[in-house]
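Submission sheet (multi-component)
Chains listed below:
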Amino acid sequence: MGRRAPRAYADPYITGACLGVVLLAAFVITGRGLGASGAFATTAAGLTHAIAPAQAEANPYFARYLAGSGPWHDWLLFELGGVALGGFVSAWAAGRLRGEVERGPRARTAARLALAFAGGVVMGVGAVLARGCTSGLALTGGALLGVGAWGFMLAAFAGAYLAAPLLARVWR
Amino acid sequence: MTAPWQGTGGTGIELVIAVAIGTAFGAALERAGLGSARNLVGQFYGTDLTVFKVMFSAIVVAMLGTFWLGRFGILELARVDVPETWLAPQLVGGALFGAGMATTGLCPGTSCVAAASGRGDGLAVLLGMFGGVSAIGLAFAPLRGFYEATARGPLTLPAWLGVPYGAVVLAVVAVALVGFRVAERIERTGGRS
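Outcome: structure written.
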């Protein structure tokens, strides 16, 4: 049986509005919005604690992720697991599941993977300093009109637009 | 009973809700095509402004919903957590984050979707993010001063500007509507304005 052609992506305004309903549901049900980068911090804290418990507990950044019900029962970690699950099911249903390394037309695979990792490191550092990312800060705080969230959003778009011309050879 | 009904602790029901909300979030990102780095970077080259359209549609819908549910007394706004403001680290962190996003073509949430739909570049971004967060966590002591600088608490735009909540909501809707028209125009010229 031949592989079906993948379905076209959905309308951005309608999908965005659906995303808005999900975000609103999170406010109504839990009193907090969405998130993603926090789950990375929880995992980092949890793993550090598994390897070197004393150091992790003495670390002021990790310590707060170790408090309460512990890093492995963190709400955001389960939510991000759901994000992966939802992404998988949606891609599968639309015939878009495929093993590949997506890259610009002139970029080599190894270079793309190296840049993806390096960019991920920079993004991780930025998310820690800002205390959030596109989901937890920009979307959540954007909808709740938080000053820091709007500042973060403007700074992130500025940073991306300034970096983009330097990366034209990678993507164009 | 007035919403919010549950919390974001680690009890069984809360974690089930976490997975359910996350699943809907991930599916929406995938449907919009934001699990694809090439689609996402189109934003920064003026060829595909899906990022802006999705983000601002979502913000406007959630913002209007929050405002009206609050107005009708269904949602108790005082119990909804506004992400707190730390101006300087959020501006610097935001600029770094944006540069990272243009490099990777993904953000933390969309890199999960990319990886889950089989993309190796999504997995590389996830690993990089984890490396960055771990590294800064381990080297936190010298950064702590900056990290905790310019704290403003859960400050909102209406409180900061001294304008009514409804007026800011209206202004954001207006900016988004104008933004959508501009985005369509930029896409039509294919970034070659």
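Remark: The CA atoms of residues 10 and 127 of chain A lie 28 Å apart.
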